[in-house]
């Protein structure tokens, strides 16, 4: 049995992609010292760290790349607000990756920290699950822009993948809101209020993440760091405008949710009114019948109809006549 004071060692398992124009290699890193030779390489490389559990490895990476202590604190603290920090020889970008493994009710937010250096990009994730598979495929394409451009462009592709997922989630929310609206209006399916509020919760999470992301992109495109090349600025500006568009759409969807709740509550109120109207009509019809039944239920000794041969049928004719007349009256008044 392992002693409780013995430090737990997490195995190292990192992917390193070395690439450049006419060059591509994928390396599986099992020791932090294997990274050092790539620092002096003429080629760019992307190092992806799929989790933050290995503190020793994080410290080793900090020392290898000479990362500032404050930058490492931002990377390790996964509750950071999306932001960009510019240092002397690297740029730190902290963003939130949003994804849904099952449905929108299970929307998850994961912090991704991106470090941009002269010839490297490092991405730190909370969990191994990510949305960067498309970028991994693009790196292998010898004619792709990723091979030809610098590390700033590669960092842009990571940000672009994250923002594209925002778009995907926004489309899912929009489609779900439209489905709920149709179901509420057509009454083909009974919609629960919790379903509407789940969409509202998703919109709030998207806004909470995208708003500061828009601000960090604004800061990044105005940056005068030597790591951000002029030719990359239009690409960064493009995803900035995408976040602006997403925020505008989210505001529209938030208003749609408000309208949806109003429609839902109005429908509930109308149904209750219909029930109350039906019960009121039934009660109104039975009021005179109850009166007639009450009269003939009195125990007076001399009541002419009691000994009359057709008294019972005469009373029923009164009941039916009153009921029919009241129904005709209500119909003409269009009460039902």
TrEMBL record:
Mediates influx of magnesium ions. It is found in: Cell membrane; Membrane. It is a multi-pass membrane protein. Residues 163-190 form a coiled coil. The keyword Phosphoprotein does not apply. InterPro entries: CorA_cytoplasmic_dom, CorA_TM1_TM2, Mg/Co-transport_prot_CorA, MgTranspt_CorA/ZnTranspt_ZntB. The chain crosses the membrane at residues 279-298, 310-330. Keywords: Cell membrane, Coiled coil, Ion transport, Magnesium, Membrane, Transmembrane, Transmembrane helix, Transport. Its main location: membrane. PANTHER family: CORA FAMILY METAL ION TRANSPORTER (EUROFUNG). Pfam families: CorA. Belongs to the CorA metal ion transporter (MIT) (TC 1.A.35) family. This is Magnesium transport protein CorA.
């Amino acid at each position: 049995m392992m002693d409780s004071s013995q430090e737990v060692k997490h195995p190292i398992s990192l992917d390193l992609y070395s690439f450049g124009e006419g060059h591509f290699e994928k390396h599986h890193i099992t020791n932090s010292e294997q990274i050092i030779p790539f620092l002096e390489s003429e080629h760019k490389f992307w190092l992806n760290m799929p989790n933050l559990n290995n503190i020793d490895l994080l410290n080793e990476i900090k020392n290898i790349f000479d990362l500032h202590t404050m930058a490492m604190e931002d990377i390790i603290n996964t509750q950071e607000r999306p932001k960009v920090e510019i240092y002397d020889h690297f740029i730190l970008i902290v963003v939130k990756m949003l994804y849904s493994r099952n449905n929108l009710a299970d929307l998850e937010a994961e912090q991704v920290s991106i470090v941009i250096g002269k010839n490297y990009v490092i991405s730190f994730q909370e969990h191994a699950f990510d949305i960067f598979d498309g970028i991994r495929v693009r790196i292998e394409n010898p004619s792709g822009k990723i091979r030809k451009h610098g590390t700033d462009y590669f960092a842009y592709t990571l940000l672009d993948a994250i923002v594209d997922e925002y778009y995907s989630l926004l489309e899912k929310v929009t489609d779900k809101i439209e489905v709920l609206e149709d179901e509420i209006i057509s009454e083909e399916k009974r919609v629960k209020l919790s379903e509407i509020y789940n969409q509202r919760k998703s919109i709030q999470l998207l806004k909470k993440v995208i708003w500061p992301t828009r601000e960090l992109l604004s800061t990044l495109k105005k940056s005068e760091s030597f790591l951000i090349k002029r030719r990359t600025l239009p690409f960064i500006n493009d995803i900035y405008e995408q976040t602006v568009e997403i925020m505008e759409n989210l505001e529209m969807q938030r208003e749609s949710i408000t309208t949806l709740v109003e429609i839902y509550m109005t429908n509930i109120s109308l149904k209750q009114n219909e029930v109350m109207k039906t019960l009121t009509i039934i009660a109104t019809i039975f009021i005179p019948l109850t009166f007639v039944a009450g009269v003939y239920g009195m125990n007076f000794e001399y009541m002419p109809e009691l000994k009359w041969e057709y008294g019972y049928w005469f009373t029923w004719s009164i009941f039916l006549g009153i009921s029919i007349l009241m129904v005709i009256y209500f119909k003409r008044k269009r009460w039902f």
